[in-house]
């Protein structure tokens, strides 16, 4: 088997969220990636398989004013012997009912500092982030980080009746 670069993959996860009060909401989630440990290789070694990746996340939203909130986050990932911790805080500002802006600072512990900003307009979220390498690899990268762009659209039910308002975390 040579250059097997396509494969089926299965991931599962769950997220629990709650509003403890009008000003404090939180979530906790877990996921398992590569459930079927698919084979992947550039070589003729058919035994190379993607290992399970375990992810845990915890975060919240704390109202600090009529239009503003802060969102602390914690993310942990483990795949074989590699693990990663991300910790950070974002500031959110609701410009109006359809548009909010966010900016934050996170760290990939012992590896990078990450700056990010973006906006959400009617379910369409666009963000940009830049990470600066602070680990022993900064010599290889000349301390230059990477720019990442992200775009998300959340389809919403067109029924405008409010049956039971629920907290939906901002990612």
Structure report:
The protein is mainly beta. Helices cover 2% and strands 55% of the residues. It is built from 1 helix and 9 strands, in the order E-E-E-E-E-E-E-E-H-E. It has one helix spanning 138-141; strands at 12-19, 24-33, 53-63, 68-79, 82-96, 99-108, 112-121, 124-133, 146-153. It has a 9-stranded antiparallel sheet, with no helix packed on it. Strand 5 and strand 6 form a beta hairpin. The chain is globular and about 60 Å long. The model has no long low-confidence stretch (mean pLDDT 87).
- What overall form do the CA principal axes indicate? globular
Spatial strand sequence of the major β-sheet: 1-2-3-4-5-6-7-8-9
Which series of helices and strands comes N to C?
EEEEEEEEHE
- From the N-terminal CA to the C-terminal CA, the straight-line distance is 39 Å
